[in-house]
Every structure is written in C-alpha cells, then in structure tokens.
Amino acid sequence: MIYKNIIAIAIGGALGTIGRGLLNMHSLWIGLPIATVIENIVGSFLLGLFTGWLIHKRTKDWVKTGIGVGFCGGFTTMSTLAADTLLLYMDSSLLHSFVYLFVSLFAGITLGFIGLILGSKWGESEVKRKVVNH
C-alpha cells in the first residue's frame, strides 16, 4: 500500500514540477518574482479545491496523496518564496520583501480557503446528483 503512495507522489510531483517550470518560462518579470507568487497562490487554490472535493468522494488514499502532496507540493515552492524574500531584501528594500511575503501568504491562504469552499460545494453537488439519480 505504501508503494502506491510513493508512486503517486512521484508522478504527481513530476507533473506539478513540470507545470511550475512551464509557468516560470512564460511569466513576466515586473520587479518582483511574480511567477513564484502565482505558483503558490494557484497551488493553494488547487489544494483547497481538491481537498474540499475529495472530502465528499470515496477516493483511495494514494490518489489524495498524489494530488495533494505530489502535484500541489511539486507545483508550489516554499523554498523559492523564502529565497526570493531574502533576495528582495538584499537587492531592494525591507518594504519590497515584506510586501512580497505578505501578498504571497495572504493570497495563498485566502485562495486556499476559497478553493476549499468551492471544492466542498462541488463535491456536495455530485453527491446530491447521485442520490437524485438513484
């Protein structure tokens, strides 16, 4: 059973990392490392969305682990957020690094919460549809 989790994490992580790499290649530089902000807030939203949705489904643990730990973990990047914050402080100012960190954390938590609510409603609607159809 643990092997399924490990394989799911590896596959999900590879796909998430590829997605992050593609986003980095096509992102605009506006004086802030915007790609990292986008990756982390989109990843937070997706983690919330899939968590909320999967709460209402009978899904194998390895699928949940592959999506959450694998894909969303591979797509987001805490280490780059920390490094970018320090680089902004060293290259620009304390204010730029603080704004970057605040926006990243606030937007990530907010979109994660919104994703959780939407995912839960999505899952609930699927459950209700199944009950009505049976």
From TrEMBL:
Na(+) is not transported, but it plays an essential structural role and its presence is essential for fluoride channel function. It comes from the Bacteria. GO terms for molecular function: fluoride channel activity; metal ion binding. It catalyses: fluoride(in) = fluoride(out). One of its GO terms (cellular component) is plasma membrane. It is found in: Cell membrane. This is Fluoride-specific ion channel FluC. It comes from Sutcliffiella cohnii. The lineage of its organism: Bacteria, Bacillati, Bacillota, Bacilli, Bacillales. The gene is fluC.
